[in-house]
Specification:
With about 300 residues, the chain is of the alpha+beta class. Helices cover about 30% and strands about 25% of the residues.
Length: about 300
């Protein structure tokens, strides 16, 4: 499904000038956002018609896709990959699927394609449990990108991250996170205003490196892949579809994510709770989380 989404995004870029629309007065979106979300929802509903799905886009693509949605199957991933998990039954009413079809839309419009991801998160009883993250482009030069779709997936209670890539979609590989240097690298928003807001925290933390990265999913991936040790975003305003998938994958590698009040995020169907009321810190391990959170937010708890 994610690899098909990558095709939709590539076709949008290859066949026409990207048309930008505005929702909620100021948020940009494109045809690719709408088409990818419609594709994912139809694909999931073809397998689990009663699942509650919450997606970022309200618009629905009414056209046809150039592939058969019935090709999606439940058995593409072996249960052996998650053999550490206890076999339990889950009430379908306790499950919510969170979709950000094209995370990093602003970067997509600007041509910063390495920031673009697709996020599918699954929460159970209010906790992020499963994450699927599609990344499609890597930077080749200043203005050039390679289209190399890759799909990462994990369960928060299983200590493995797996991936498949476009060249061999039937071969699942385990992602091995490299050992990082003894330093503290933080990734955060690309916007100048965010960097100004967070400066007081960075002055306290004194990180060895600050990386300004586009897209929430891309920032999570920076931590998961070992390019950063912490995703720092101490402002409210993101939505649960921005963070559910990334949080689940991060937890599978032993990472920690909390809001700035040192609380876990709850994923609930009430629309009033979809926006994150607090900022957050997402770290590769508990030790770095404690180091960062105690310095910055000890007076909040």
């Amino acid at each position: 499904m994610i690899l098909h989404a990558g095709n939709v995004i590539k076709q949008t870029l290859d066949t026409a000038k990207v048309e930008v629309k505005i929702k909620n007065g100021h948020e940009p979106y494109t045809e690719a956002d709408v088409k990818v979300q419609t594709l994912i929802i139809k694909g999931i509903k073809s397998l689990w018609p009663n699942l509650l799905i919450i997606g970022e886009e309200e618009e629905v693509f009414e056209g046809k896709f150039d592939f058969n949605l019935e090709e999606f199957r439940k058995d593409l991933v072996s249960n052996d990959l998650f053999k550490e998990l206890e076999s339990t039954k889950v009430n379908i009413n306790d499950i919510i699927v969170w979709i950000d079809p094209l995370d990093g839309t602003s970067e997509f419009i600007q041509g910063c394609l390495e920031s673009v991801t697709t996020l599918i998160g699954v929460s159970i009883k209010g906790e992020s449990k499963m994450g699927i993250l599609g990344k499609y482009y890597t930077r080749k030069g200043k203005y050039d990108f390679n289209w190399i779709p890759k799909c990462y997936f994990a369960h928060s209670d299983c200590p493995h991250v797996y991936y498949v890539d476009y060249s061999d979609p039937n071969h699942v590989k385990e992602f091995i996170r490299p050992n990082s240097e003894q330093r503290l690298a933080i990734c955060t928003s690309k916007s100048k205003s965010a960097l100004q807001r967070f400066k007081k925290y960075f002055d306290i933390i004194q990180p060895d490196q600050i990386l300004q990265v586009g897209g929430a999913g891309n920032k999570f991936l920076h931590v998961i892949e070992g390019n950063s040790d912490c995703y720092f975003y101490a402002s409210p305003g993101l939505n649960k579809w921005d963070i559910c998938a990334g949080e689940a994958i991060l937890k599978s590698i032993g990472g920690v994510m909390m809001n700035t009040l040192n609380e876990k995020f709850k994923y609930e169907k009430d629309k009033s709770t979809w926006t994150c009321g607090q900022g957050f810190v997402a770290c590769k391990c508990p030790e770095i989380y404690l180091k960062v959170s105690q310095k910055c937010f000890e007076n909040n708890t």
